[in-house]
């Protein structure tokens, strides 16, 4: 028998009891509950969306005669859409397939087995959290997504506390894809005219966590979203998509394609990883690189998984435009702040595009424009 509950009981069943969206779907749900119906302007029309089909960037060519061309492609993508895909990145296809399988295995467990990682229940809440949507308590319309978040401190903690079904493959993914992120950061920092130093990776990507996202099949995908409009708060995100698709990005600056301001789908490429620029890198570059506003569509045919690695600054790190960049630009467009402040602001609100960046912007109302000393 299908689950029939009012909004309050839906919230209790899905969020508080830890059944998640999957538990709701497994009950025999025949239509999207009202609590998940998005306003019409937030829905994703698959038929109207264009695909952003570009050749993936071959990272192995950074070590060859085509290095300058590869660097140019990375920089152009960071300056326009904030997303690109990479191949020959050093991660084995077998690892990526195992990672997707592990995600399905975790979410296919019983609600009771997953609920031990709920906030307030998890034996290691600072390292492992299972949940649903983004900030359910503050969202008027919930997102059609369950997730598992695993924060990295060291190998020993990960192997001790992360869930048995996925800890080893998730740890290997984190360590190898972190190197991909470091490579991209070095390219982008250097192209700003700033000398890249090893401490930058530790400062700006010193906190790492892997999420496993699960998007159950949805009876009315046109009414809801898997993830609402947002940009990532960190420096760089390395994302593994499965083959189903559903990732959409808003083109911020792209005069050549004529798609500025449009939402485009990032189609899955077998064996590729998706790289996206986060808010932190937009701030460090004084706005030259664009954090990517993106969202995720649901599907009625198959459950979908994705596995992002978030590379973010340490909480005590001071973030602001790099001095050399602000000096060259003649002004800083963002203020300096501790990253912990930005993180608290980011998670203190529901998804709302790139509005989180308002926290860091210098305007006539919050400060005068200045050049960092």
Automatic annotation (TrEMBL):
<keyword id="KW-0560">Oxidoreductase</keyword>
<keyword id="KW-0408">Iron</keyword>
<dbReference type="InterPro" id="IPR027443">
    <property type="entry name" value="IPNS-like_sf"/>
</dbReference>
<feature type="domain" description="Fe2OG dioxygenase">
    <location>
        <begin position="206"/>
        <end position="313"/>
    </location>
</feature>
<dbReference type="Pfam" id="PF03171">
    <property type="entry name" value="2OG-FeII_Oxy"/>
</dbReference>
<dbReference type="InterPro" id="IPR026992">
    <property type="entry name" value="DIOX_N"/>
</dbReference>
<keyword id="KW-0479">Metal-binding</keyword>
<dbReference type="InterPro" id="IPR005123">
    <property type="entry name" value="Oxoglu/Fe-dep_dioxygenase_dom"/>
</dbReference>
<dbReference type="Pfam" id="PF14226">
    <property type="entry name" value="DIOX_N"/>
</dbReference>
<protein>
    <recommendedName>
        <fullName>Fe2OG dioxygenase domain-containing protein</fullName>
    </recommendedName>
</protein>
<dbReference type="GO" id="GO:0009805">
    <property type="term" value="P:coumarin biosynthetic process"/>
</dbReference>
<dbReference type="GO" id="GO:0051213">
    <property type="term" value="F:dioxygenase activity"/>
</dbReference>
<dbReference type="InterPro" id="IPR044861">
    <property type="entry name" value="IPNS-like_FE2OG_OXY"/>
</dbReference>
<keyword id="KW-0223">Dioxygenase</keyword>
<dbReference type="GO" id="GO:0046872">
    <property type="term" value="F:metal ion binding"/>
</dbReference>
<comment type="similarity">
    <text>Belongs to the iron/ascorbate-dependent oxidoreductase family.</text>
</comment>
């Amino acid at each position: 028998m299908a689950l029939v509950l009012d909004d309050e009981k839906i919230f209790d069943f899905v969020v508080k009891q830890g059944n998640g969206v999957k538990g709701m779907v497994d009950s025999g749900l025949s239509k999207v509950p009202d609590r998940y119906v998005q306003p019409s302007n937030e829905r994703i029309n698959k038929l109207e969306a264009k695909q952003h089909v570009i050749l993936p960037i071959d990272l192995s060519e950074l070590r060859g005669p085509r290095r300058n061309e590869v660097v140019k492609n990375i920089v152009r993508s960071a300056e326009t859409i904030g997303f690109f895909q990479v191949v020959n990145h050093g991660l084995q296809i077998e690892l990526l397939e195992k990672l997707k399988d592990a995600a399905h295995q975790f979410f296919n467990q019983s609600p009771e087995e997953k609920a031990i990682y709920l906030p307030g229940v998890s034996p290691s809440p600072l390292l492992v959290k299972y949940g649903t949507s983004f900030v359910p308590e503050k969202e008027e319309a919930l997102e059609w997504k369950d997730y598992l978040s695993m924060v990295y401190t060291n190998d020993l903690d990960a192997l001790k506390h992360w869930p048995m079904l996925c800890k080893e493959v998730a740890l290997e993914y984190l360590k190898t894809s972190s190197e991909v992120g470091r490579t991209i950061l070095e390219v982008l920092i250097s192209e700003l005219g700033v000398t890249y130093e090893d401490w930058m990776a530790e400062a700006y990507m010193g906190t790492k966590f892997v999420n496993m996202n699960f998007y159950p099949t949805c009876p009315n995908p046109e009414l809801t979203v898997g993830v609402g409009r947002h940009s990532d708060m960190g420096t760089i995100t390395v994302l593994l998509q499965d083959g189903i698709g559903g990732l959409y990005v808003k083109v911020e600056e792209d005069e050549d394609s004529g798609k500025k301001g449009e939402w485009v789908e990032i189609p899955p490429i077998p064996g590729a990883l998706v790289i996206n620029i986060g808010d932190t890198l937009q701030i460090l570059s004084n706005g030259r690189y664009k954090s990517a506003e993106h969202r995720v569509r649901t599907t009625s045919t198959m459950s979908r998984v994705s596995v992002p690695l978030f590379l973010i600054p340490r909480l005590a790190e001071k973030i602001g435009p790099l001095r050399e960049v602000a000096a060259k630009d003649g002004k800083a467009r963002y203020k300096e702040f501790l990253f912990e402040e930005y993180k608290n602001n980011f998670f203190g609100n529901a998804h709302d595009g790139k509005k989180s960046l308002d926290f860091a912007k210098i305007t006539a109302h919050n400060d005068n424009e200045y050049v960092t000393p």
